[in-house]
Sequence to fold (199 residues):
Amino acid sequence: MNLYFTPALLQVSLWEMVKTSQPIPITVMALLAFFSVLSWAIIFSKWSTFRQAAASNRQFLRAFRKANSMEQVALASEQFRSSPLVAVFDFGYEEVARQRKSARGKLINPVALERTMQLGISEEMAKLERNMSWLATTATVSPFIGLFGTVWGIIDAFTALGLAGATSMRAVAPGIAHALVATAMGLAAAIPAAVAYNQ
Fold:
């Protein structure tokens, strides 16, 4: 008896499975594919953004430490506009300039300066965290969508078994295949999104 699989035994491809699916399994697979593509797009986008921001921050910090005055830092910061630290510095620098102008060169309200810097930090954090909620949503929702597809596939398998009137792998195989594909797609969408979000 030949126990090895041949190409003839593996004729059912994913595309053939989709073509023979009912609307609900197709909808489940389309939703999971959408979440997966969206999360990967966000992952690559954020990876590029964070990498660029980290490099710009390092360059700005080097310039900041070498500068002898706030004015020199302000001039140097024009080269590093993609750095989140530059935006925070700009908030602080504007507040310092405003206080010096109104108090003849002195800082009269350090609390206001600190509050302004915190506002700058909050704005930059909000920019960096934009679209991150989609990763959390994908990580949370995808397994449940996949589970729904799994349950639906098992229901299909039992329905086909009942209609066949006898135990037959040919009757239950399509439903079970849909169930397993939905489970795999749900996990494939959720796991990278969860890892990337936490990272």
